Amino acid sequence: MHRSRKINDEFTVNLILKARAPVAMYKVVLSLLLIFVITYSAGNVFAEQARLATYHEIAQVVVDQKLSNNVTASISLQTTSIKEFQIPPELDAKIRNNTAVVGIIVTNENQCVLGVQDQICIMINTKRTEGQGGIKEAQDNARKTGDLFIDDINKALNLNAKFHSVFIHYEDSSNRALDTSGQVSGAGTVSAVYTAQMESTDYMFNNISTILIPQQIRNMGGFYDVAKEIARDDSSKMSFTILPREKDSIMQLKVSEKYPHAARETKEIDPLKLFKVDEIKKSSYFSGGFFPLNSLIHVVVLPTDDTTKIHTNTHVIDAVVKNNQTVPADITKSGWFFNSESGKRIEAMYLFGEDFSVKRQDLIMTLGDNTPSVSLPGSNEIYILIGIGVAAAGAAIYYLKGFRKN
After folding, report:
1. Which segments within 245-356 are labelled E, that is strand?
2. Position 289 pLDDT exceeds 60
3. What are the φ/ψ torsions at residue 263 (nearest 5 degrees)?
4. pTM of the model
5. Residue 403 and residue 406: Cα distance in Å, rounded?
């Protein structure tokens, strides 16, 4: 069966927002971009043949000891192709052609914003520009923009959401800690909020994924199968996000499960235990070639102590310095590559290399001793996870293009 894999050759550093947006710095994009610089050599046949599809699957674990004290495990399925996530072309164009819209989020996360409880939320987000009117004008403008899209979104996703309120985001501590943008939350974002009757994650994920994802991709397993299993848990939540750009949109379907008040007691990070599987496999969608960066396992730790170290019992990919940046020495090898091994944020990416699966024991990591600190207020975590998941996938696209041999 022939499957088209569109290679994205137009991904730019401006991953999500215009670079001058006041609260959308997206520093995490820049740091993650540097992780995935691909160094090619004449003797490395596989690296020369490395390919990148528009479809990405990311398993992510966030251990937040600093802000929320929660551990969150999530699976993200993501693409920029409306053939892989089948939203109506006319809706895609309508969203991208309206410069007021910076993001659309559909979620069953409890209390998506203050004042909403036990309901599905559709949030149509705009960016409030400083100096352009007061609160009332910002709310009116957001409502007008939201009303232009809500009927089309309801129809596309088989929902029946009605207007609830307009919410202006002010709190930004989680975005600052993780160096993420305020596009889906954070100071300066204004959300026109529409709500519908609450649905379980299992029902909602199966309904939306069936609408969005072609059967041939759903039947190819991979991280999608893990997402389906997580969705069956009563405590799991899901989101579908559209982040428009000039020529396409980043679309992300995410299922997550939160382990409250567990982060500061965490000494061992066992990613697949959190996902309730003993082995995770890449989607068969990538079986027709060498796609080293389309399936990623991403671990982020916000430690309470900046001297905290992280250790792994499996292969660590060596780093080399190229153009004054530290990058993976060999993308054909499987193992962890560390963007930062200590400090305010610890980040590691597991690269599959030439392997197609990895077992639970090979992913376990341990944290060194740390000391408790005072808890800070945090934003709704589901929006923070959306941001860093988008950045993780985007990094690979930009640098695979930039370092491919002519």
Report:
1. 249-259, 268-269, 279-281, 295-302, 310-312, 319-322, 325-328, 335-340, 346-351
2. yes
3. -70, -45
4. 0.79
5. 9
